Amino acid sequence: MGFRRLAFWTGGLMTALLLATFVFISVQIGVGVREISATAMQDHSGDRVEALIEYVEDPGHSLRDRNRAVWALG
């Protein structure tokens, strides 16, 4: 009986940790997309997608920032 209880609690803990990790990563991705989208919309017109596309095509921005915009479009 002790082993089953330990296995149950260990499985539950692992599931909770995986879920928490998934939520944390999802929130971080959302924050990154919102940041680069806001930056693109300040510099270019249109909705978020159009602004990000124009941001990517603008050689005046650094390669790192344009890469982040490509990532956000994905």
The value of Rg in angstroms is 20 Å
Average pLDDT, rounded to a whole number, is 93
Relative strand content: under 5%
Order of helices and strands: HHH
Fold and architecture overview:
The protein is mainly α. It has one domain (22-73). The chain has three helices and no strands. It has helices at 2-43, 48-57, 63-73. α1 (2-43) crosses α2 and α1 (2-43) packs across α3. The protein is rod-shaped, with a radius of gyration of 20 Å. The model has no long low-confidence stretch (mean pLDDT 93).
Give structural attributes.
single chain; mainly alpha; rod-shaped; 74 residues
Concise synopsis of the structure shown:
The protein is an all-alpha fold and 74 residues long. The chain is built from three helices and no strands. It has one domain (22-73).
Which secondary structure elements does this structure contain, and how are they paired or packed?
Blueprint: H1 2-43, H2 48-57, H3 63-73
Helix pairs in contact: 1-2, 1-3, 2-3
